[in-house]
Amino acid sequence: MPAAVRFGANYTPGQGWFHHWLDFDLDAVRADLDAIAALGLDHIRVFPVWPYFQPNRTLIRPRAVEQLVQLADAAGERGLDVNVDGLQGHLSSFDFLPAWTQTWHRRSLFTDPEVLDGQAALLRTLAGALADRPNFIGMTLGNEINQFAAGPHPDPDRITPEQAGAWLGRMLAACEEGAPGKPHVHAEYDAAWYQDDQPFTPAHAARLGAMTTVHSWVFNGTAQAHGRDGVATEHHAAYLVELSKAWADDPHRPVWLQEVGAPAPLIPAGHAAAFTEATVVNALDCADLWGVTWWCSHDVDRSLADFPELEYSLGLLTSSGRVKPAGEVVARLAREWRGRVHAPAPRTTALVVDVGDEVLAPRRSVCAPGGSVFEAFARLVGEGVRPAVVLASRVDDKEHLALRGIAEVVVPEEVG
Questions:
Q1: How far is Cα 229 from Cα 413, in angstroms, rounded to an integer?
Q2: 165-192 pLDDT, tens digit each
Q3: Is 208:168 a contact under the CB 8 Å cutoff?
Q4: pLDDT tens, 396-409?
Q5: How many CA atoms lie within 13 A of 205 on its CB side?
Q6: How far is CA 140 from CA 8, 168, 214, 389, in A?
Q7: Are strands 289-294 and 349-353 parallel, antiparallel or unpaired?
Q8: Which helix (H) or strand (E) holds 377?
Q9: Full set of structural domains in the chain with CATH
Q10: Element of type H or E holding 83
């Protein structure tokens, strides 16, 4: 049944960024949450940094878990639900891996039995600590952890797609053990959809977990090629939502736009509000959208060193809590859509995607910026079409097409 779309923010503390866990200040957190709630948002995504919470494989710090619960309770007092990312191996260009997985203790994040036991214990513990909180949405396994499994990461733990699927299954089961019945999910960056040799695949993203998550960043070649206000740029998030539906076994599987932001200088500060509005409005034209969670709540304070330049300006709020133009846009859209049933018209024309084997997707780069599927989708949108995407293996499945409202299919070569 159609429901209202959720609006939220990825919570980046105004003081100390994610290092705030080292000097946890509940009053500062409350001030941040007040500013987020004042935007009219209904949820946040929270990032307990893995080595701060589990510095030793058999030590999960009780005080850190208690502070996470305090944060969740403070959010609940302000009407904010909470999703928790469990394994923060990577955030804003920095890797955060515990010492017991590195250098002298180097072992695979995805296949070593002892590492798996440690990861599962942390996820189970965090989920269990919040299971009885009414504002706890559920767990995300970690932030874009697929980057550790292939290049361009400088030191990846290479695995096969089968091993990636086994890891996802084990970790999702640990979340379920800790908090039964909650909608636990996993999250990859867009290499899962675009990179031929990435072992985390579109099938994993669209078929494992309670819903599909997509992370939309136009610095991946989209804005460079199409410009700050190009059709492909302003519809990139919507494209990922629709692309994900091609692999979903459930024609109405929920899709969560879990990360999306306006990265400078490709999206200049003066254009951030227009980009934000276009991106969110276009995503809202996709059926089965669970929610939009902007990256991020607060800017990174410039007293902190060595971040890529774009990371300092992605917030809806400044580090001191002042609302920025993009924040005003998100706040207005959240107000306009509060309680409103989300039921876009069906997308009756579907673009066919052929990536070879649909499970392994060895030719998924056709979906990436510059690829035939990506560019055909943008051309169709530019012509006024609202395209869906369908796997080549499903074009003759009349039941599947009917359930999605698809009346005709086109291949990329027929477009433009």
A1: 25
A2: 999 999 999 999 999 999 999 999 999 9
A3: yes
A4: 999 999 999 999 99
A5: 35
A6: 15, 11, 12, 26
A7: unpaired
A8: helix 372-382
A9: 6-337 (3.20.20.80), 349-414 (no CATH)
A10: strand 81-87
Tokens of 55: 């510095």
Using CA atoms, how far residue 170 sits from 20, 89, 117, in Å, is 30, 17, 10
pLDDT digits (tens), the chain, 416 positions: 678 999 999 999 999 999 999 999 999 999 999 999 999 999 999 999 999 999 999 999 999 999 999 999 999 999 999 999 999 889 999 999 999 999 999 999 999 999 999 999 999 999 999 999 999 999 999 999 999 999 999 999 999 999 999 999 999 999 999 999 999 999 999 999 999 999 999 999 999 999 999 999 999 999 999 999 999 999 999 999 999 999 999 999 999 999 999 999 999 999 999 999 999 999 999 999 999 999 999 999 999 999 999 999 999 999 999 999 999 999 999 999 999 989 999 999 999 999 999 999 999 999 999 999 999 999 999 999 999 999 999 999 999 999 999 999 999 999 97
Which pair of tokens denotes residue 269? Answer: 């500060």
Distances (CA, A) of 310 to 178, 232, 233, 272: 36, 20, 17, 12
In angstroms, the CA 318 to CA 13 distance is: 10
CA pseudo-torsion sign 390, 392, 398, 400: negative
Query: CA-to-CA distance for 252 and 340, rounded, in angstroms?
Result: 19
Q: What angle do CA 176, 180, 183 make, to 5 degrees?
A: 75
C-alpha separations of 98 from 23, 60, 339 in Å: 19, 12, 42
What is the chain's length?
A: 416
**Is 137 strand, coil or helix?**
strand
- The phi, psi pair for 189, rounded to 5°, reads -80, 175
**Residue bearing tokens 């949108």:** 381
DSSP string, 334-351: HHHHTT----PPP--EEE
Separation between Cα atoms, residue 383 and residue 338, nearest integer Å = 31
Residue 91: CB atoms within 10 A of its CB come to: 19
Please state whether the predicted TM-score (pTM) of the whole model is above 0.85: yes
The reported pLDDT for the residue numbered 1 is 60
